[in-house]
Amino acid sequence: MDKNKEIRRIGVFSSGGDAPGMNAAIRAVVRTGVYHGLDVFGIYRGYEGMIEGDIVPMSKRDVGNIIHRGGTVLKTARSERFKTSEGRKTAYEALQRHKIDGLVVIGGDGSFTGGKIFHEEYGMPIIGVPGTIDNDLYGTDYTIGFDTAVNTAVEALDRIRDTAESHNRLFLVEVMGRDTGYIALNTGIASGAGAILIPESTIDLDVLMQHLEKSGKHKKLFSLIVVAEGNENGNAQQLANEIKKRFPDYDTKVTIIGHLQRGGSPSAMDRLIASRMGYAAVESILQGHSSKMVGIQNNQINLVSFDDAINKSKEIDMLQLKMAGILSL
Ligand code: F6P
Prior knowledge:
By secondary structure, this protein is α/β, with parallel strands linked by helices. It has two domains: about 10-145 and about 265-310, Rossmann fold (3-Layer(aba) Sandwich); about 150-260, 3-Layer(aba) Sandwich (Rossmann fold). About 40% of the residues lie in helices and about 20% in strands. The relative contact order is 0.18.
């Protein structure tokens, strides 16, 4: 049922770190909007572009040939100005000039925090689509970009394995994940790593080295350790320095995959969830929902409040970490 019949013009934008699959989500929002007879506008560079009035009309043809492309055609930014009430006022005035009466934001928790405040201050209907490689949002099993990032990291690990094995080296490979270990855990399991170090779990270096030596007794003479960048015991370089000091017999190397994980053509899974979520975002805003994020749980679309998506934490499955340890022996 259309509770908000007055919504006629919506704006779509990407915000925060780019993630592969964002273009598929933009395409879905624009085409679903056009299907419903809405005027759809693209807002460039997230909240920054909104403040600057960098807003253009988008037709269904404008989003042709982008479903397979990484990055975001609308570009993105992390806006400091939108954190100020003055910045938000300027953004609202820009939206008013274009008579935009609804928004779809594709981003992570920072982007949703901005959207929630904007909705509270100006009553602007806004729906979020989870786009971040970190997969750290409550209320959805997957965020757009996570699957591609994991696939990219696994491909890198497979390559590093070749050289690690040839030289009998210990490699610490750092993957992204500012506060959470989802990328590290999934990459580590899928690449058969000897150990996985994530922010959600602490590990004693002696225990870690004992674990690796145990593997050595089974004639496993090289090791791959996947480290999440936000790891509590230190990042890959700090850990490598410590290992070199305390276990000089190991030929220890570090690889930081970094922003490589954010680029590239999105996986089929990311294109699929982005299409479903983008479509659902427009349907939801037309049904009168606001300040909510579209998620997918148990393969079903669901809505979760921005409050929950931002404040509740999606717990890592520690049994999977335990399993990874057993499988690496
Ligand atoms: O939130 C996504 C993410 O890729 C994190 O994993 C990483 O810590 C951060 O963005 C890097 O941000 P930036 O590209 O702004 O350096």
